[in-house]
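Hey, can you fold this?
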Amino acid sequence: MNLLELIRDIELFRGLNTEELEAIAAICKSRNLNKGEVLVSENEIGDEFYIISQGAAEVLVKATAPTPQSIIHLGSGQVVGEMALVDKGPRSATVMVLQDNTRVQVIHNADFKALCEKNKNIGYVVMGNIAADLSFKLRHRNLVSGKR
């Protein structure tokens, strides 16, 4: 699958046209990692967003447990670190690579912001998708925990 096809299927970019998706693809930088390598570490400052284009990774959270707990496994077409497109806050989890030759596409915060300055619609659509995703997660969390 080529990069444009991969990006087209990502929820975060839903609503962008082909030209806008091509602009996103143009700012992606490919990075290869091997099993056991850490993509991001919990609590480090984040300024990059990642798309897994090949291979697999695991999201781990330490929270209050003595050892990190596995939250989810990610594969091709899944994303991590999208909040780095919004701010440069601390990472909420560690992401470790599970397979050799895992390839990720990296989007730097500064590159994304520069792209949004050129095409405000990209920023509008992506930030709207991030807000919708966060809203869904908060509602789900509150329903599961019994909060209203």
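Oh, and this one too while you're at it.
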Amino acid sequence: MKVAIVGYGKMGKLIRREALGLGHEVVAVIDPVAQDPEVTDSHLDASTLNGCTVAIDFTHPSVVVDNIVLYARLGIPAVIGTTGWYDQVAQVREAIDEQSCSIIYSGNFSLGVALFFQVVKYASHLFGKSGLYDPFIQETHHAQKADSPSGTAVMLAQMVLDNTPDKTSIYSDTLHRRREEDEIHVASVRGGSVPGTHTVTFDSQDDTIELTHRARSREGFATGALKAASWITDGRKGFFTLDAMLEDVFLQRESVQ
């Protein structure tokens, strides 16, 4: 693949290293503020993306929607790892609806997290049916993370909400009041260099069940993003989540077996 890396923070640097290690060509590194010698351009447009077969975007929620629209208009497949924009997904879909584009996005490209999602979905279904457990989500990330709550925490909360009949909403701000019975609370902590820890708790008067994913490093995120880039550039068209890729890969494996 000929990769354009858009956003050259910690994840961008790691993706560049992993991509080169896997034999891919990094044709552009685009960031408006980074001073690293690897940065080729400060502005994202058709000319700075020229020659790439896929863009991998770990930028900022304030710019990522415009970036996605640009990738779609140019017909450049893109992997979107930026979080904090999911309240605009519907508008983005509408904006690129008539474009022949290839976009895959996720709040977390770690394949371990993707499998963790499947566990949480099933557990939420079981605990939700019982009517005995009150769910909540806690997440911790490094001090430099730009958004709160994390995209992964939002996705986990939505999974729990979809499978818990007596819950109707998600609340992710600091509570200065008593939590409503039909709310799922998402709590965030920022500090140190924590790559990412997410815990989904189901609590009752009799016991507590905790499901936790704890990232040890960011390498897993980079590996997953590059796998998603390979998948999205394999002739696919559409606006995908990571679940679509996993379902496709698992189905292929099952057919082989």
